[in-house]
Amino acid sequence: MPGTGRTPKIQDVVVINFEAFVCGTSTSIVRQDGVLHAVGRKQQSHPVPATFTDELLLSMQEGGITKVSLPARSKEAEQMLMRCGVRRSEAATVALDVHITLVQICVPGGARLQSPTSMGRGGQPEPLRRLVARCASELQEKGITVLQGPEQGGFTPPEVKLLREASLRFFDLALERMREELQRDPNRVIRFLDCVARKGHRLHVKPPDLWDPKVFGFLHHRGTFHEVLHRAFGSTEFRLTHCGALMAKPAVEPMPNNVNQSWHRDAPEEPHLVGQWDPYAVAVYIPLIDMTEQTGVTEFLLGSHRQALDCDLLDKYPPPRQDLVSTAGLGAGDVVIFDIRLCHRGVLHTAPELGVGELGVRPVVAMNFGVNAWEDKEDNNNWGDQYLLSGPHGK
Fold it and tell me: Does domain 111-382 fall into CATH 3.90.1150.10?
């Protein structure tokens, strides 16, 4: 291939999940058993035509977006159309070139989530009352808001350090116990009350230290983000219902688990609550490292908390880029608050050099808050019924 000096090989590819949008449908290009495959809507796997395998591999190596064109009525174009759900009789008559856009799926497609810079008189930081009112309004309208930097209600470096150390300490202990469990039973499902393994190399843990009010009282009350919740809920009658850490291990080897999280909501609409509280529950994310597009960001669909939308469909039919925002660009200690009904997904972490700890993980504190009338079903739906680690436990 021009400019490469050699033909790229499959083993040169590190992150191997891409999506190709053909004829308005979504097809995944994945590597399996040393061969590139196209997986169509029916989840049937077929080898990718060899005529553009080299171009595909090169685009993966460069980590960008490229386009591959297959000549009209060619055998390769017919094969690709069929893999996207077009019938053989129809595929053979398509008189147009088939254009395939290859997009690296571990990179978010939307804009960076940012708080508008708003200064008071004399160039001073935005007054607290105005800041709280603006963020509460954004949360209600868009489904998400952010507090950036300690001067706008984010956490201070010492607070971030405490959170990071507690999360990593528990994570390391959990990993050691997980290895012991898997040695005894390689088929063991990691689903405990204090630790759950999820897709995309993510481990969700519940460090009990985070419930200690003497050390981590700033998570539980009197923070700027608590004032935003008070304003958004329209009530002081709300509580913390879940507190843990999302630990994303880097995807640096070709593995079947190299996939983004599916689009989802954390909880469904509850009409009997909306009439009195809107929102009635939120999630709060606090990244404990500076975030880039490569460090396992979370991507959100603005306004989807107000839409009767099946979030699962977004995996097949991606939303418009202008409606997406992600946590890329946020600093350690910034506070993201989003409606529990907002469609979102986690994206692969692929930069261990930007993470922390021996494995280069990306830690994010994750909390749920809701009005007293709301029942948080997080533990019942997503966690196990016994503890992985012995000793004291949080709620």
Answer: no
